[in-house]
Amino acid sequence: MTNHRIALIPGDGIGTEVLPAAQQVLDVLGRRHGFGLTYTSYDDWSCERYLREGAMMPADGLDQLRDKDAILLGAVGHPEVPDHVSLWGLLIPIRRGFRQYVNLRPIRVFEGIESPVRTARAGAVDFVVVRENVEGEYSQVGGRFNSGFPDELAVQEAVFTRAGVSRVLDYAFGLAARRGGRLTSATKSNGIVHTMPFWDELVAERASGFPQVAWDQEHIDALAAKFVLEPGRFDVVVASNLFGDILSDLAAAIAGSIGIAPAANLNPERAYPSMFEPVHGSAPDIAGQGVANPLGAIWSAAMMLDHLGHPAAAKDVTDAVAGVLAKTDVRTRDLGGTATTAEFTDKLLELL
Ligand code: NAD
Ligand code: IPM
Ligand code: MN
C-alpha cells in the first residue's frame, strides 16, 4: 500500500480548528482508495511558541519537514505577535526554502451559494489564480532609516528575476493549455516603471512557447473591477506575489466567503515538499468559537491528494464539498448559516 508522510502544522487561531476537519476527510479517503497517510504533527509551531521561546519553529524546522511528501498548514498569526515576525518566522521560510514558487488558488462558485456578486453564477465561474510565491514585492531588501526624525523613511524593494518570473509563467501557461486555453496576466506597467514592464516582456516571451493559449494582460486595478463585473470570463490568471495575494481574496469573496478558498504552494519539480493551506488567515475575531468554515482547509487537502497522485480521491472531496452546498442547507456563519465547524464537517463526511 502506498504510504504518504504528511506534516501537519495547525498554526494559530482557526488554523487549529479547520485542520482536524481536513484530517478527518483525508482518513476516510485513504481507507476508501487504498493509500496510507502517516502524520507528523507540529502542533507547537505557532505564535504561542514564539511568545514563549522567541521563535515560531525550531532552528532546524525546515530539515524536519524536508523528507515529508507534503505539508498541510492551517494558518499563522496572533494579535500579540507582529504579522511580519510570525509570517517570516514560519510560513514564508517554508514557501521560499522549499522553492514553492507556484501558489495555485482555484475559485469556483458552487451551486447553493449566493455570491455577493450578481454576475457570479454557479457553474460559470471556475478559474485559477497562479500567484508567484517566492519573490516580487515580498522581499527583505530595503530598510528603515532615521527612526524618530522628521525625515524618517522606509524603503521596500521588489525583486523580480528572469528565472523566477519565467518559471511561474511557464507553469501558468502550461496550466492554461491543459484547462480552457486562456490566460490573463495581472500587470501595472503604466505606473510601476521597472518591474512591471519587465514582467510584461517576459509574459510575451514565454507566451510564444504556448501558441495554443490565448492570452491578454490587464492592469491590476482594472482587473479587480473585471473580477467583479465579469468573473465568468477568466480561466487562468497569473500574477506577482502581492497582486496574486489580493486577487485571490477577492476571488474567494466572489465565491461567497474567504473560508472556502484553497491554496497549493507547489514546488513543481518535486525537489522539495509542497504545502497546502487555506487562503484565509487565523481569523482572531472568530478563533476559539468553533464556527470557522472548514471548506478551505478541506479543499486544500483535496489539492494535496491530487498532488500525491490520487485524483479520484481528490474528486471525491470536491464532489462532497459541492454536494454539501447544493443538497443541504447546513452552512457555517460566513455562508449565512448557523452550523459549527464540527456540524458542517460531519454533514460533509456523511455525503462523502
Ligand atoms: P483572515 O483571513 O484571518 O480573516 C479575514 C476575515 O475573514 C475575518 O473576519 C475572519 O473571521 C473571516 N474568515 C477567515 N477565514 C474564515 C473561515 N474559515 N470561516 C469563517 N470566516 C473566516 O485575515 P486577516 O484578518 O487579515 O488576518 C488575521 C491573521 O491571519 C493575521 O495575523 C494575518 O497575518 C494572518 N494571515 C495568515 C495567513 C496564512 O497563514 N496563510 C493568511 C492570511 C492572514
Ligand atoms: C496568504 C497570506 C500571506 C501572504 C501573509 C499572511 C503573509 O495573506 O497566504 O495569502 O500574503 O502570502
Ligand atoms: Mn492572503
Automatic annotation (TrEMBL):
Residues 5-348 form the Isopropylmalate dehydrogenase-like domain. It comes from the Bacteria. The keyword Manganese applies. GO terms for molecular function: D-malate dehydrogenase (decarboxylating) (NAD+) activity; lyase activity; magnesium ion binding; NAD binding. PROSITE patterns: IDH_IMDH. Keywords: Lyase, Manganese, Metal-binding, NAD, Oxidoreductase. Belongs to the isocitrate and isopropylmalate dehydrogenases family. PANTHER family: D-MALATE DEHYDROGENASE [DECARBOXYLATING] (PTHR43275:SF1). This is D-malate dehydrogenase (decarboxylating). It comes from Streptomyces spectabilis.
